[in-house]
Each structure stands twice: as structure tokens, then as C-alpha cells.
Amino acid sequence: MSIVERALKRLQADASTSRARRIFGKVVETATTQAETVRVISIDQEALRVAGLLAPKHQERQIASQYRQIKRPLLAAAMGKGQEPVPNGRLIMVASALPGEGKTFTAINLAFSLAMEKDLQVVLIDGDVAKPQISKMFGIDGERGLLDAVTDPDADLERLILPTDVPNLCLLPAGTQNDRATELLASERMIEAMKWLLQGNDRRIFVFDSPPLLLSTEAPAIAELSGQIVVVVRAEFTEQHALLDALNRLPEGCTPSLVLNQSTQKTSGYYYYGYGTAASVTQAGDG
């Protein structure tokens, strides 16, 4: 049995005992002073905490401090703080080799942490267009989004980005599913859409929740566009060969950051702790 097959077997076993999917947000309409309405995603942060997707109140300060350490090198490369900004550094892709490694958890918490920055706006993009977990979690899986911006030349991308009631945090849904998703994400239209996003507001950072690298063809397409790539590795779960295979699918010359998830041992790098786990972020070497 191959590494991927063994991992999938474990995931199927986990899924059989997991609780039903919950929805942590909904779109509401809010009146403005100009008698117009704005569609806003109301996020149930307490439900996210109960589900283990955000830190509980008694650990909130500790987890926030630890995520500040994780995000600092990413933020510095994105905004050019103390260094030259990385090309397309404000496009941050969060990926993993396989499902079940904490990729979406990391993307959500990283986005929440970045949104705490002064004068910064964060857009969490559901790039897992085949299995849009972010869109489903926040009740926007029926909304137009990323794929619609690529397929429809008349689509107003700015209007597809939905603000939330979390200050400085917005969401871009995956959009209408399409059998040509890989080709669309690798198209010139996608490149132009990302350029438009970057040029529209230089205080915005975009966090992609990507599909798993080993089980999708969309992830490498997103990686080609991203200036920074974060690969989540689950302790005692991710096989070394699977990780190396996943890293080999990234664009040549890129140096991803690695986040160790659910580790009980402290390693070098930047850490966060919670729910009895630990994570660190380090730069992957050439090997």
C-alpha cells in the first residue's frame, strides 16, 4: 500500500467517527447611511472556539501571542518591513501534502491574526475550489467567488469579496464549481485577477486556503501565483516521503515555510500552543 493510500485510509477512518459539519457564519444585510445595503458575513466566533478552530477564551491571549511570532516573517516579506518585499508576497498560500493535516485550521487562524494588524486588511480566499471547506464553514458556498471572477469577464471582483463582522477580515468564496477549475486557475485571466487584487489596495494581504498538494492539480496552479507558501505538516501523521513529494510539486526555486501542527515537542522556530499541541514555522531547505 502506498503512502498516499495509507494516509487516505486513516482519513476515512477519522471521518467515519467525526461529528457532522457545522456552519459558523451567515450572510446578513446591513443598512448604510446612504440607504443602501451591504452584505456582511456574521461569524460565530464562539462556535468556532467550541469546535476547536479558534482558541478558547482562557487561552486567547496566549495563542494570539504565539501566532504573532508565526506571522512576523510572513508579514515582513509581504510588506517589506526591514527587508525588500517578496514579489507577490501579499499572496500567501497555505497548503499541505494531504487532507487532515491542519491546513484550513492554520489558514483561518493566520487570517484572524493578520487581521489584528493596524491599517491592514486580510482577505481569506477559499482556493480549494473542488472541496470548498472555508465557503461551507461560513455559509457562503452558494455565493459567487474566485472561479466566477475568472470565468466571467464582466464580474466585479471587488464585489465578490465579502466583508465580515471581524474587523479587517474579508472572505472570497470559491465560487461556482467548474470542471475546468485547474485550467482556469492557471489561466491569464487568473493572473490578471491577482494583479488587480494586489494593485487595488497595497494594505491588503490575501491568504489562500489551498487544496492538498498531492491530491489536486489546482494547488500547483495557485502556487505559481503566490509569493509566499506555507506548508502545514502534521506531527506523527505526515509521511516524510509524502512531504518531500509535495514540496517537489511547488514551483522551482521557491522556499516554503513549514508549520508543524499537533506536535507535543518544542522545536526551533516560532511556536503556538493550544489544545495540548504545538506548532512551529521554519524555512524549508533545498534538500
Instruction: Tell me the number of strands.
Output: 11
Gyration radius (Cα, Å) is 18 Å
Class derived from helix and strand content: alpha/beta
End-to-end Cα distance, whole Å, is 26 Å
Largest sheet: 9 strands, mixed
In CATH, the architecture is: 3-Layer(aba) Sandwich
Enumerate the spans where pLDDT stays under 50 for 5 or more consecutive residues.
1-5, 10-20, 267-287
Going by CATH, what is the homologous superfamily?
A: P-loop containing nucleotide triphosphate hydrolases
Q: Can you tell me the CATH topology?
A: Rossmann fold
The CATH class is identified as Alpha Beta
Give the strand order, joined by hyphens, for the main sheet: 5-6-4-7-3-8-9-11-10
How many domains in all?
Answer: 1
Mean pLDDT: 81
**What is the helix fraction of residues, given as a range?**
25-40%
General shape: globular
Number of helices: 11
> Secondary-structure element order, as H and E?
HEEHHEHEHHHEEHHEHEHEEE
Strand content: 15-25%
